[in-house]
Amino acid sequence: MEKEDKQVDQAVDALLSRTTDLKNNIQQLILRLENEYETLQWPAVLDYFALISGQMNNLLKVLRSDKLPKLRNRIILPLLVSPDPDPDLQRVTDGRVPLFNHQAVPDYLRTLCDPEIEAADQVILNKAAQMNGDAAQKLIAAHNRICQNACEIIRSTREDWDVDATSRVAPSIMSGDTIVLLSAICGGRYLRGPERAPNPSLGNSCPKPMGGPMGPGKMPTATVRTNIKSARGMSSHPYMR
Amino acid sequence: MQPLGPAVPSALNGIAIAGLRLGEMRGKFEQQSSSVRIRQTLGGYRIMQAEAPIVEQPLTRKNAANLQEYLLQGSILDSSADVLLNRLRGLCDNSDSPVELFHDIEQVYTIKDQANQATFSLRARNALDNPQLPWQLRYVGQPEVGDKSRFTICRSVIEVGTSSNLVTWLNELGFRLDYEFVAKGHIFQKGRMKILVQKIHRVCQSGNPETLEPVSQSFLIELSVLAPPSQESLGEEMKAFADQLRPLVELEKVDHARLHVS
């Protein structure tokens, strides 16, 4: 009997240490999400997820191991349910459970599912039990076929989607326009005389690749507008006040 | 807000680089600056400071406000600008308040140095939608592209708010209007970064800023920070932000040497 008690103690210790690791990691992740959401990078979050999932696996491995005594044979017997706040309990649970009253007990010491969930579960189990083997096989086959079709559709249209996604954003930039605008505001080009910026037709839906040098020969000769005086020669400013 | 005191002498220092007679200019500038107010940066930052006394400081290079503008530039077609504006509104600060608009005229005045034929230019800017705001005088240095390890271009910028007779003053000094344009657009702020999405218009009829014609079918986008030199982390911060706007718009460091070749 004593030997079994020791085993249970060991198992509970192992479970405790695993859950503490898990809890710490989740806490760290939540902390970073709350405080560093501006600088937090996706790869870091994914690292956390990987860590948490690994620790979950560890915990389950401990639970499934053969050496673990049958924990389900053990029961927890609540000896005292009190409506007063319990500082010890509060400390042990990091402030999550301030008091152990009649409302908290069913939630924390529950060994069965919610009655509603159990009822729903039972309906499904009954349905499964009534079905005979042949019908079940047929259903499984049909289900697999639908899944395969869905996979096939996704695979075959993925390329189209990718092309769509790139072609939708591509026309947002006209190559060379940055240079045109900057040479206007920094050097006064296109602003002084009758020279106009190159004005490609609006229907041109495939912009040139970015970064191509703009030779002077590409500028279309602008229509001459004689009523524009060159601003260069003015001696006084028009908006004087 | 940058301190008001050093702004005026630093603007003068910028001019001094161009080789003007400093003493004469300083006298004139201080006459003008009795009603000088600061308008924080270009593009419609409507933060104004109450009139403050100008702090007298000796004109040495040491106390010049040595600020660099870290800059990334790009453009976006008019048709996609709305998408960009929405995205910027979500990404930037104060996303719950309406987007700030500006409508400014900027005039570039140049002066020729008789001795070595070099030209030197200053930019005067005024808000057309709110002419009561102070004019803004700006000196913009040559941009440095730097090597690949630097993500942004970098140029020295000296700005000062002035009274409305700035243009008269510039003309008296011998500056002549070189060119002018009207910039209309939206301004966003994200931390210390400033993002301008603006449409550049040429003024068809000089003297009449109503007769406008867009220079191109794109909006010009500028992502800039004004900071002391050699702040390496800034570049990464700006690059991270620029990456969030991809592939809608490519903000990059544009080599300004390429502009003058074509």
TrEMBL record, chain A:
Pfam family, one: Med8
GO terms for cellular component: core mediator complex; mediator complex
Keywords for this protein: Activator, Nucleus, Transcription, Transcription regulation
Region entry Disordered, spans: 196-217
Protein localization: Nucleus
InterPro entries per UniProt: Mediatior_Med8_fun/met (IPR019364)
Principal location class: nucleus
Keyword Heme: no
GO biological process entries: regulation of transcription by RNA polymerase II
Compositionally biased spans, kind Low complexity: 207-217
The family this protein is said to belong to: Belongs to the Mediator complex subunit 8 family.
Subunit structure, interactors included: Component of the Mediator complex.
Function: Component of the Mediator complex, a coactivator involved in the regulated transcription of nearly all RNA polymerase II-dependent genes. Mediator functions as a bridge to convey information from gene-specific regulatory proteins to the basal RNA polymerase II transcription machinery. Mediator is recruited to promoters by direct interactions with regulatory proteins and serves as a scaffold for the assembly of a functional preinitiation complex with RNA polymerase II and the general transcription factors.
Protein name according to UniProt: Mediator of RNA polymerase II transcription subunit 8
Organism: Galendromus occidentalis (western predatory mite)
UniProtKB/TrEMBL annotation, chain B:
GO cellular component: core mediator complex; mediator complex
Family: Belongs to the Mediator complex subunit 18 family.
Subcellular location: Nucleus
Entry GO MF terms: transcription coregulator activity
Example of a GO biological process term: termination of RNA polymerase II transcription
Protein name per the record: Mediator of RNA polymerase II transcription subunit 18
Its job: Component of the Mediator complex, a coactivator involved in the regulated transcription of nearly all RNA polymerase II-dependent genes. Mediator functions as a bridge to convey information from gene-specific regulatory proteins to the basal RNA polymerase II transcription machinery. Mediator is recruited to promoters by direct interactions with regulatory proteins and serves as a scaffold for the assembly of a functional preinitiation complex with RNA polymerase II and the general transcription factors.
Signal peptide positions on this chain: none
Gene name of the record: LOC100904875
Keywords: Activator, Nucleus, Transcription, Transcription regulation
Subunit record text: Component of the Mediator complex.
InterPro entries: Mediator_Med18
Pfam families on file: Med18
